[in-house]
Specification:
Shape: globular
Oligomer: single chain
Strand order of the largest sheet: 2-1-3
Number of helices: 0
Structural class: mainly beta
Radius of gyration: 23 Å
């Protein structure tokens, strides 16, 4: 179910609407002033990293992160990543 962000042209409040389908959008009404005069905003993607037990360990900035040199080693903060 897509969530779209809107801005009311009458009261300038921003609000989100959860639509059941991206192809069949329900009527949009401002929850504050009940206006149907709105502008759809360009929303950015958001993702939560949540909690993790991952420990990044020492910094790669000085080349001492402890990752073996195979597979990329330490370069520009990219320890062992190609």
């Amino acid at each position: 179910m897509p969530i779209f962000e809107y801005k009311c042209n009458d009261c300038n409040k921003k609000f989100e609407v959860l639509h059941k389908s991206s192809t069949n959008l329900e009527e949009v009404i401002c929850p504050d002033c009940q206006s149907k005069n709105y502008k759809k905003l360009l929303s950015s993607f958001s993702a939560s990293t949540g909690s993790s037990s991952f420990d990044s360990g020492p910094s790669c900035s000085d080349g001492s992160c402890g990752v073996p040199s195979y597979g990329g080693g330490c370069a520009n903060g990219m320890c062992g990543l190609n």
